[in-house]
Write a structure and sequence with these properties.
Layout (H helix, E strand, L loop, with lengths): L1 E5 L8 H14 L4 E5 L5 H6 L9 H5 L10 E2 L5 E4 L8 H4 L9 H5 L1 H4 L4 E5 L6 H9 L2 E6 L3 H20 L5 E10 L5 H14 L8 E2 L3 H7 L4 H4 L4 H16 L1
Helix pairs in contact: 1-12, 8-9
The protein binds adenosine-5'-triphosphate and magnesium ion (MG).
Magnesium ion binds next to helix 1.
């Protein structure tokens, strides 16, 4: 089994969309997948719960109030289960301020469900905060969706540094599974060429050959609480996500 963090501290680069598409693709291979929404914005939860958000979520497990197994719900997608996020996650850091080994909380919390799923996927918040650190400590792998902006490259650089520290001190098995570009439009501008050079320098072979093109069908699917994979499986972006997922299966 594999635990995978979908991470980029830069906001709006496609973490949640990628989590939803990759989880859908993994589920369609017949494997059981658990998506844990770690972002207080709860975007992933909104889609996976089809708008009927449960009252409890991962926050209740993190503060020791609920057992993790009772928080996993079946989503409308084949083989995909989820644990909800909500606004209380914004107070996680304050709530655990006096706990020992604060970085290990999520890792301990998910232990009882590790054997129940082939994949556990964390949708991380757009911040290098204690939740993101907990996700990396609990993960076998991390994947970075990104764009070609200077700020995204700087975020990738910071994540690599942070992940290296976590690997040395807290989680020796943590590996980068790859980086891929999301919402790619034109690659021929000066800024995008420079961004691509910078990204390749930063991540080298970790950059997937496949990128995710821009499409209005992704926001359209979200409006219907669905994914491209389920609504428009023949769309070229759905096909690209299937290829990314295949890479993930092979590398994990
Ligand atoms: N391939 C795509 N083409 C067009 N729009 C996209 C694509 N992927 C994602 N989007 C849109 O971009 C926006 C940001 O995507 P998303 O919410 O997945 O990013 P995020 O990194 O999770 O954001 P946050 O940092 O706020 O959590 C959303 O409105 C989403 O619908
Ligand atoms: Mg998100």
């Amino acid at each position: 089994m594999s635990v995978i963090s979908i991470i980029n501290s830069k906001g709006g680069v496609g973490k949640t969309s990628s989590t939803l598409e990759i989880a859908s693709c993994l589920g369609l291979t017949g494997e059981r997948v658990l998506v844990v929404d770690l972002d207080g914005q709860a975007d992933c939860t909104k889609v996976l719960s089809k708008g009927k958000r449960p009252s409890n979520g991962i926050y209740d497990a993190l503060i020791g109030e609920e057992e993790i197994g009772s928080l996993a719900h079946r989503s409308g997608f084949e083989n995909v289960y989820y644990i909800a996020a909500d606004r209380r996650l914004g107070g996680f850091e304050a709530a655990i301020a006096n706990r020992l080994e604060r970085e290990m909380i999520l890792s301990e919390v998910i232990e009882p469900v590790r054997k129940m799923f082939k994949y556990i996927v964390f949708d991380c918040p757009p911040d290098m905060n204690m939740l993101t650190t907990n996700a990396l400590v609990a993960s076998d792998f991390y994947i970075c969706p990104c764009d070609l902006s200077r700020f995204s490259n700087e975020a990738i650089s910071a994540i690599k540094h942070h992940a290296d520290l976590i690997r040395k001190r807290l989680n020796p098995k943590l590996k980068c599974l790859g980086t891929f570009l999301v919402r790619v439009e034109k690659m021929n501008s000066f800024a995008s060429r420079l961004g691509m050079e910078g990204l390749k320098k930063l991540v080298g072979d970790d950059l997937f050959d496949i990128s995710i093109p821009a499409t209005s069908k992704i926001p359209e699917a979200h409006l219907k609480n669905s994914t491209l994979t389920h609504m428009f499986p023949d769309n070229k972006v759905a096909i690209a996500y299937r290829q990314i997922t295949q890479n993930i299966i092979e590398r994990s």
